[in-house]
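Researcher: Batch entry, complex prediction.
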Amino acid sequence: MTEYDLGIIGYGAAGFAAAIRASELTYNGMKIALIGHGDIGGTCVNRGCVPSKYLIEASKQLFSSKNPLYPGIKSSAEINFNELMSSLRNFVSKAREEKYINVIKNFGNIDIYKGKAHFVSKNEVMVNSEKIKATNFIIATGSRPYIPENIDNYVTSDDIWSIDELPRKLAIIGSGAVAMEMAYAFSNLGSEVYVFNRSDHVLKNFDNDISRLLIEHMKNLGVKFIFGDINKADDDYVISDKKYDGFDKILVATSRVPNIDINLDAASVNYRHGIIVDDHLRTSNKMIYAAGDCVEQRLQLETLAGREGVTAVENILGFDKSIDFRSIPWVVFTEPNVASVGLTENQLKDYKKRVIELKNVVKSSILMQDGIVKMLTDKNGTVLGVQAFAPYAAEFIAEAASVIRKQGSYNDFIETMHVFPTVSESIKITAQSFIRDISKMSCCME
Amino acid sequence: MAKKVLLRVYGMTCDDCVAHVKNGLEKIGKNVDVSLDGNAVLDIDNDFDPYKIPSLDVFNGRYKAQVKEIKDD
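Model: C-alpha cells for the complex:
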C-alpha cells in the first residue's frame, strides 16, 4: 500500500486543476496520487471542447469559402475529410501532450496511476491490484454520454472523432450544446443533417427566444429538425413521427451522465444521479470532495470543472471558497455563437429586460450577421443575466460574467469604453437601451 | 480536552517556522507539538471544529495545514 496526502480520482480538467493548485499552495510539498484511465486530460481535450472547436472552425472556413458574403468575391472550396480528421486528431494529440503530459512532468510530487479506481474503505482505493491510501480524496471522474434504451448502432461525441469519411446523411439525436454544434459543423461540411428531439425547444438552459432564433438559423443553413418522441433508432434509420432512413451515421447527443461507479458506498459518499456535495464541494464524507461533471449539478463545463478542482483543494487547505453559479458563462459555438451568463427569463419573476437586434451594431452589419443580445436586471439596474445570439459572443460574454460576479449594474457596461467597431459593443448598446432610445443614437454615442 | 488532531503542515523551512506555527496552534489547543518534517499534533476542546484548524490565522499566509486524523481522547 502507498500513502498520499491527496488522492485525485480522474485526470481530466477538474483533477488536473486540483493537482496543480494543491502543488502551488504547498510548494510541491503535498504528495499526490493522480489516478485515471483512458487518455490523460479527460473529455475536454480529447473528446470534447478541443476537437469540436477544431471541427467547427474548419467547417466555417469551408462554408464561407463556398459562400462568400461580399459582392465581387467569387470562390470555391473542396474538402478532403480524411485529411481534415487526421489533422484534428494530430491537433488533439499535440494539445494533450503540451497541456497535460508535459505540464505534469513539472511536478515531482505528483504520481500518475493509470487504471480504474474504486473505493475499498473511507480513505483507500484500489487501482488495478494496488491499494492507495490518502488523507483526502477529490473525486473528479467526469461524465459519459447517456444512451437511451431504444437506440442501437450509433456514435457519440466520444468516438465520432475517429471517423474518416464524411457522413453523406447524418442523424443527430438530442438538442443540447453538443447536438447543436455537431449539426452546425457537419452541415457546413456538406452532410445532410437531421436533428431529432422530443420537444421543439433546443438548448434547455436558454430562453425560448434564443432557442427559436437558433432553430431558424440552422434551418436556413439546411439542417432539418424533427420534433417528437423517438420510438427507435438503429444503424441507418430513426423512427419518430415516421421512419427516416438512409443515414450513414446516427450521432447520439442526448445528455451526459456522471461517472460514479467507483463503489462510493464503501467511502460513505452519498450520491443520486451524481455525487452530492455542499457549497464547499465536500461530500458526506468530510475527508472526500468532488469536482466537475461527476457532481450532481446543472452545468457540465470544462471551466466549471477546473474551478471546482481548484476550489476543492483550497477548501481542504482551510480556505472558505464556493462556486458562484450566477456568473458562470457558457457558450454554444455555432455561428453566430449562443452565449449566456446568469439567470434567464424562465428563472426570474420580477425583472427588467432589454433586447437589441444586431442590426443596431455596426460591426455585425459589416459581418452581415443577425442576432440579438438580451440583458435582464432587477428594479435597481443590477444585472441578473445576459444572453446573446451573436458572432464572437464567446469572446465577450466574460465581460457580462465579470459585471454579474461583482453585482454590477448596466451602468458598468455603459461606463466601460468599448472598441469601435466590435460586436462586443452590442452588450454596451443593450445596456444603453435602459436609458435611451438607441434608434436615435449615433454609433459613437457614449 | 477531548480531541487529538493530527495535521500535515506545509511551508515550514526552519525552526522559526516551527515556533510560529506552534504559537498559532496554541491559541486554540494544548499539548501542541510541531515538527519540521511537516507533522503537527494538538489537543482541542470538543466544541472546536477540528476542520476549522486550517483556517486559523497562522495558516492564512505562507503556511498551509491539512487535517490528517481526528482522535477522540
